[in-house]
Amino acid sequence: SPSLEGKNYLIVQSLPIHKKTLYQGKMLFNMYLTVPFMEFGIIALCIGTRTPIIDTILYLILGFVLCAFSTAWGCVCGVKHMKLDWENEIEIIKQGTGVMIYLLPNMFVSMILIVVVVFLGMVIEHSLLTALLILIYGLLAFLSYRKVMKLSK
């Protein structure tokens, strides 16, 4: 979140890099942190449940796309709702407006899609549902990324 720079935000803005590059770096760092653990968890779960290789590959792609959406949406919320006058870092992480705006839609969209998948899972093949989720979350990630790039201008 750009809010973590706090009072040093003006120093960061004076650096000879564009905001676009700064936000891309923040998102890339977040992906470096989240994707390996997500992929490791998916692989371990798929090995434990003896999931077919095609489904495993789809789950790995879905995990990556979910991380991309979460990263881009989090950056949108962080950029739009910066709080630079904080006393403690925990204030931003737990009490920030951007955090609430990030968590609630992300949680509700995921819950709605899970309910839809459970009901459609009785009728449609799981691989097709996973591919559909990849497309939905991929579109949401793309739109969120475009929004961040638009906000960085």
Structure description:
- The chain is mainly alpha-helical and about 150 residues long.
- It has one domain.
- It contains six helices and no strands.
- It has helices spanning about 10-15, 20-50, 55-80, 90-95, 95-120, 125-150.
- α4 (about 90-95) packs parallel to α5 (about 95-120).
- The radius of gyration is 18 Å and the shape is elongated.
- The two termini are about 15 Å apart.
- The model has no long low-confidence stretch (mean pLDDT about 85).
Which labels suit this protein?
6 helices, mainly alpha, 153 residues, single chain
SSE pattern, N- to C-terminal: HHHHHH
Looking at the structure, what is the overall shape? Answer: elongated
For the CA atoms, what is the radius of gyration? 18 Å
In helices, the fraction of residues equals over 70%
Number of DSSP helices? Answer: 6
Strand percentage: under 5%
**Total number of β-strand segments?**
0
Q: Report, as a whole number of angstroms, the end-to-end distance.
A: 17 Å
How many structural units, i.e. domains?
Answer: 1
Largest sheet: none
Low-pLDDT sequence parts: none
Structural class: mainly alpha
**What's the overall average pLDDT, rounded?**
85
Tell me briefly what this model is.
With 153 residues, this protein is an all-alpha fold. It is 79% helix and 0% strand.
What does the secondary structure layout of this molecule look like, with pairings?
Layout: H1 9-13, H2 19-49, H3 53-80, H4 89-95, H5 97-120, H6 126-151
